[in-house]
Amino acid sequence: MLRDGSLSGKTIIVTGGGTGLGKSMTKYFLELGAQVTICSRRLAVLEKTAKELEEQTGGQVLTVECDVRKPEQIDAVIQATVQRFGAVHCLVNNSAGNFISPTERLSYKAIDTVVDIVLRGTYYFTLAIGKYWIENQIKGTILNISTTYAWTGSGWVVPSAMAKAGVLTMTKSLAYEWGKYGIRLNAIAPGPFPTKGAWERLFPTELAEKFAFENRIPLNRTGEHQELANLAAYLISDFSGYMTREVITFDGGEVLNGGQFNFLHQVTPEMWDVLEAQIKSANRASKQEGKP
Ligand code: HXC
Ligand code: NAP
Fold first, then answer.
1. What parts of the chain have a pLDDT lower than 50?
2. Distance, CA 121 to ligand 1 centroid (Å)?
3. Do the strands 184-190 and 11-15 form a parallel or antiparallel pair, or are they unpaired?
4. CA dihedral 229, 230, 231, 235 (to 10 degrees)
5. Which ligand is closest to the CA of 260, given by its number?
6. Which one of 113, 286, 288, 291 would you pick to mutate in the ligand 1 pocket, going by the greatest count of ligand atoms within 8 A of its CB?
7. What's the CA gap between 207 and 173, in Å, rounded?
8. SS3 string of 168-211?
């Protein structure tokens, strides 16, 4: 969408950049001339992605293992990026954890796990990068990846909805407070964009076979990764230099149907047993990915 070189000279950190939408955004940022650091918990996954994207785009990717719930690991990502590329100009808070479940079936730990990755992880990274930018007088840009149900609310993804709503409020509040430093914060609220991570945990096979959720989307299709990458590149680029605190819903009109997962009231307790087992098995498999 943007012309060649639109992001040249920019260094961008993408959390969760090894997979899914983070990987697709990273690819486009590299194509537009940026240098990118990708970070998340699974180093082997990050390294595989970095190699693939460097070969495809000719760009440079730094990988750093980081659990966004751990501030010292976040500081290490920023330090390693400055050491390798000289500075950081943009942060994309894209990491998330999520799965569908009736809320009354969740343990306290299950709720904490999702909220800690999504909300705590995002505000820790935002705080760390903001301190670095203010101290070094860098007019940086943050892009937060939220969801449509952060606005509407939605059953069956309550921990994620609470956390993503907090991220939106932080986006708007800090856009005001840090505006004087030239720091911009915006967010995207995507509708469904097929990724392995989201589909295994939110639309497992058993469910996808029973409910054609595409029918909920006025444009009658899911989103394409390049479409999201185009918007993300614009929001972190200088072309959007006068835009801050904005939250862009990007969902083919799906939000007009209300809370994204409210249709799950049709799922029976027996079916929840099956879905929970499927999701937990996918969680275990993803933890193993990249391990010898
Ligand atoms: C009930 C569950 C559960 C399930 C996990 N738990 N899955 N409870 N139903 N289906 C519980 C566990 O039993 C445990 O609690 C607690 O959650 C933590 O689980 P762990 O596996 O120990 O946690 P961890 O290894 O940190 O993994 C985090 C995770 C996992 C969130 C559970 O799914 C993950 O790593 N996700 C990362 C990727 C991801 O989620 N991508 C999708 C993003 S999509 P107890 O008490 O039993 O120990 C998105 C947008 C949605 O956000 C919009 C789509 C259109
Ligand atoms: P995904 O591929 O599963 O991406 C999630 C990423 O977060 C993974 O790369 C994961 O890497 C990382 N992550 C999870 N826990 C982490 C932690 N504690 N510390 C650091 N990184 C962590 O799913 P996706 O669909 O691309 O989602 C990307 C973003 O888009 C998320 O914010 C999601 O909420 C949002 N979103 C997606 C959709 C959709 O339809 N796909 C819709 C709305 C919003 P590791 O496992 O290696 O840590």
1. none
2. 15
3. unpaired
4. 90
5. 1
6. 113
7. 38
8. HHHHHHHHHHCHHHCCEEEEEEECCCCCHHHHHHHCCHHHHHHC
pLDDT value of position 292: 57
The DSSP output letter for 224 is P
According to the model, what pLDDT value does residue 48 have? 98
Closest residue by Cα to residue 257 from 223, 205, 221, 213: 213
Structure tokens at 272: 């929840």
Ligand 1 pocket check: which of 283, 284, 288, 289 to mutate, most ligand atoms within 8 Å of Cβ? Answer: 283
Indicate the angle between helix axes 20-31 and 43-57, nearest 10 degrees: 30
Q: What does the angle CA 92 – CA 229 – CA 54 come to, to the nearest 5 degrees?
A: 80
User: What domains are defined for the chain?
Assistant: 11-289 (3.40.50.720)
Q: Whose CA is nearest to atom 12 of ligand 1?
A: 110
Which ligand number lies closest to the CA of residue 95? 2
* 64: Cα separation from own chain's centroid: 17
Query: Does the annotation mark 234 as catalytic?
Result: no
What is the model's pLDDT at position 194? Answer: 96
Determine the distance separating the centroid of ligand 2 and the alpha carbon of 263, expressed in angstroms: 23
pLDDT, tens digit (0-9, with 9 covering 90-100), for 54-83: 999 999 999 999 999 999 999 999 999 999
- Residues with beta carbon inside 6 Å of ligand 1? 96-99, 101, 105-107, 109-110, 113-114, 147, 160, 192, 197-198, 201-202, 276, 279-280, 283, 287
- Joined together, the tokens standing for residue 229 give 């990458």
- Write down the pLDDT at residue 208: 81
Q: What DSSP state is assigned to residue 59?
A: -
